[in-house]
Amino acid sequence: MNVRRQHISGIALAAVTALGLGTLTACSGASAAGNTDKFDVVASFYPMAFLAEQIGGDHVNVSSLTEPGQEPHDLEISAKQTAQLQESDAVLYLKNLQPSVDDAVAQSEVKTKIDAASLTTLEKHGNEVGGHAAEHDDHANEELAGLDPHIWLDPVRYAQVAEGVGKAFEKADPDHAADYKKNTAALVKRLDGLNIQFKDGLADTRTKVFITTHAAFGYLAERYGLTEEAINGLDPESEPSANRVRDLEKMAKADGVTTVFYETLVSDKTAKTIASDADLKTDVLDPIEGITAKSKGDDYFQVMESNLKALQSALGAK
Length: 318
Known about the structure:
Elements: H1 10-19, E1 39-43, H2 46-56, E2 60-64, H3 79-86, E3 90-93, H4 99-107, E4 112-115, H5 132-135, H6 155-172, H7 177-201, E5 209-212, H8 218-223, E6 227-230, H9 242-254, E7 259-262, H10 269-278, E8 281-284, H11 300-315
Parallel strand pairs: 1-2, 1-3, 3-4, 5-6, 5-7, 7-8
């Protein structure tokens, strides 16, 4: 077992005591992220935590920096979470999605730092250029500025990330490498199956265009031959211009769009206003940045299947 630190140093212990770190609620219901007898992994938000849990199984203790229901783009790392990060064996994050996480990881002494963005390819997607990512160019590498980070919504890219995470776990905790390899293969197989479900389910539709409040579905749209028109950019809280709203309403009529999609973690006010003005329906298309009581499913796979059904209904799948 490769546990980086069996004992908290005196300085760290004093810091943890002062902060009242105590027992942290992990996404898996486990205790504090650092100094357990397992391989301790801090994940930046739900899609990373889900990978760590699926691949790590019983050998890992996974804790998420983003609480269920919290909008991950808005996360600011607390002193308590910085201490949590310092005492972990590995951190799994997605560079350029959460600038405060990027900064904390860069400054931490965690031995194993796994950047999901480095395990697949990232692209720019129309509406997102100049969006949230571009606002934080000073926090990110220049080559990442303006790139769409929502890779987990493409099962193929998510599987590539899973394979990279599995290899990183094998290297960092070699005592359990065989199990990590087996769990990774099982997860990749499920993601391959999900990809086929989407490919087949969206192959024949009346329209290929869908409107969302948050430009999170560029990779998914590209993978399955669809066109995403986003009301906002990468930042789901930003307000669209009046011109953008008018353009979307015209496009909806021209392309036979029936539905404006909104998400569970952000207000649906803008979506409902546009839908009402253009005489369209509204429905949920979940970017799966966190699982809450409002989510249509208990985990990544269930919510992705709900997303597929919502898209099939809105696009007029035959």
